[in-house]
Amino acid sequence: MYLLHATLAGQGGRAVPRDTAALVAGSARPEDRLEHVALHLDDPRGGPRSGPGGDRRAVLGLFLIADSLAEAERTATELCLRALEECSELRGLRLLSCGAAMPPAYYDGLLGAARDEQVGRGLWPPA
Question: For the chain, how far is it from start to end, CA to CA, in angstroms?
Fold first, then answer.
């Protein structure tokens, strides 16, 4: 299973609807192998997400079953574009990006473990 993040933007101050996750899920086909969709409207630092020019943004988290990351990214992109085209409530929104989400805590842990191993062997900090 893969977690993909799709960033959507509403133009001209238009907000991304709160039911976007349900609308995208409703556009899914069985072959998309979509397991779950979550919508994140607010910036983790608080307040609404916004981009240059004041466009309102939101991030969709899509959990897909796929045979490869490339397949998952392609399916997520196609699903989001299909939903934007088919759902009248989503017209006027744009898909800015769609790709794999990197869980930073996991990778920070890997880097920390590697650093700790190097410290123990006298290899950290690098010369």
Answer: 40
Q: Concatenated DSSP letters for 88-112?
A: GGGTTEEEEEEEEPP-HHHHHHHHH
The model's pTM is: 0.73
- Strand-pairing partners, residue 50, are 56
CB atoms within 10 A of CB 44: 8
pLDDT in tens, the chain (127 residues): 999 999 998 877 678 888 999 999 999 999 999 999 999 886 555 555 555 555 578 899 999 999 999 999 999 999 999 999 999 999 889 999 999 877 666 556 656 655 555 555 555 455 5
Q: Which fold has domain 2-120?
A: Alpha-Beta Plaits (3.30.70)
Domain ranges of the chain: 2-120
Q: Which of 103, 101, 96 is nearest to 7 (CA)?
A: 96
